[in-house]
Amino acid sequence: MISGTVTLTQAEGNHRQFVASDNRGHHFLIDDSTGNTGPKPIELIAIGLAGCTAFDVINILRKKRQEVTAYEVKVEADQRTEPPNVFTKVRIRHIVSGVDVSVEALQSAIHLSESKYCSVSAMLQLSAEIETTYEVIPAGQPAAVGV
């Protein structure tokens, strides 16, 4: 079971800063754009998607014995203009650097993450279109970009 707590830091005034805690003792601030001391809750969803797929993809690439020297996942999300401001479109970009990293291995890893393993992706696909692109940067060669 996943559990957590969100606690208001200042009861008086208009502040909306909270300390978020998971059931394993990790703590971080969440805030609105006015206070700007931590990410907004909706930003955590987008970052959670990037993290979820990154965990899957790097795990699969390592199992396929791909020599990854750097890996980054970038995410952008568009929201509905009226409440609830759910995501309508999410763009994910995987950028993988390494020695002889197979484009086919990366494509397969991304597909498995999106279709089977990433629970955040499965939830977001209910309300948003997810567009994924990737880039493989071989050691000493120009980037190979794909969709």
Explain what the structure shows.
The structure is a single chain. The radius of gyration is 18 Å and the shape is elongated. Strand 6 (129-138) and strand 7 (144-146) form a beta hairpin. It is α+β, with helices and mostly antiparallel strands. The longest helix is centred in the middle third of the chain and has 23 residues, at 41-63. It has a 4-stranded mixed β-sheet with strand order 4-5-6-7, with helices on one face. The chain has 2 domains: 1-38, no CATH class; 41-146, K homology (KH) domain (GMP Synthetase, Chain A, domain 3, 2-Layer Sandwich), CATH 3.30.300.20. The mean pLDDT is 94. It is built from 3 helices and 7 strands. The chain has helices spanning 41-63, 103-117, 119-124; strands at 4-8, 18-22, 27-30, 67-79, 87-99, 129-138, 144-146. Helix 1 (41-63) crosses helix 2. Helix content is 30%, strand content 36%.
Distance between the ends: 36 Å
Pick out the low-confidence regions. Answer: none
Query: Taking Cα atoms only, what radius of gyration do you get, to the nearest Å?
Result: 18 Å
The helix tally amounts to 3
Largest sheet report: 4 strands, mixed
Supply the CATH class of the largest domain.
Answer: Alpha Beta
Identify the overall geometry. elongated
Which class best fits the helix and strand makeup? Answer: alpha+beta
Predict the CATH topology of the largest domain: GMP Synthetase, Chain A, domain 3
